[in-house]
Structure to design on (160 residues):
C-alpha cells in the first residue's frame, strides 16, 4: 500500500510540474522578447468552452528593469511583437506611460486581471502602479500588458 501511495504521489507531482512548466512557456510567449522575465509570480484563469480570461504575472529581469530606468518609454519602441509570432494577432500597439486609461480600472480591475485569482495584495500593487506615472502599458487583440519597473513585474492579462 505504501508503494502505491508513493507512485500516485509521484504521478500527481509530475503532472503538476509539467502543467506549471507548460503554463509558464505558454504565457511567456505572449511577452515581447525584449522584455526579460525570470519566473512566474502568478498564473490564473477562468475559462468556459469558448471563452476565457486571466493573467500571467512575471518577475521582470534586473537587466530589463535597469534598461527601462535608463531609457524610459524609448525602451519599448521595438517591443511590439510577442515571442510567439509577428502575426498581427500577436502584435501590440504603441506603448504608453501610465496611468492606464480609466476604462481599464472603472470596474476596479480590468478584464483579465479581475478573473486571475491573484491575491489582494498583488492586485493592490498592480493597481497602484497602473494609476500613476512610472510604468508602461500596451494592448493587442483581447489582451493588455503592463510593465512595472519599480516592482519588477510584467502583467499580461487576456479576455475572450
Amino acid at each position: 500500500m505504501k508503494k502505491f501511495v508513493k507512485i500516485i504521489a509521484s504521478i500527481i507531482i509530475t503532472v503538476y510540474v509539467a502543467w506549471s512548466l507548460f503554463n509558464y512557456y505558454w504565457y511567456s510567449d505572449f511577452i515581447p522578447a525584449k522584455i526579460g522575465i525570470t519566473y512566474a509570480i502568478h498564473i490564473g484563469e477562468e475559462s468556459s468552452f469558448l471563452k476565457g480570461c486571466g493573467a500571467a504575472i512575471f518577475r521582470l529581469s534586473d537587466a530589463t528593469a535597469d534598461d527601462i530606468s535608463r531609457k524610459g518609454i524609448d525602451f519599448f519602441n521595438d517591443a511590439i511583437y510577442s515571442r510567439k509570432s509577428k502575426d498581427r494577432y500577436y502584435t501590440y500597439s504603441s506603448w504608453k506611460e501610465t496611468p492606464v486609461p480609466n476604462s481599464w480600472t472603472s470596474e476596479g480591475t480590468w478584464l483579465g486581471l479581475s478573473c486571475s485569482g491573484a491575491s489582494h495584495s498583488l492586485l493592490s500593487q498592480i493597481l497602484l502602479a497602473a494609476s500613476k506615472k512610472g510604468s508602461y502599458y500596451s494592448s493587442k487583440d483581447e489582451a493588455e500588458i503592463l510593465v512595472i519597473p519599480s516592482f519588477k513585474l510584467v502583467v499580461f492579462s487576456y479576455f475572450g
In short: Helices lie at 2-28, 62-71, 102-105, 120-130. The mean pLDDT is 90.
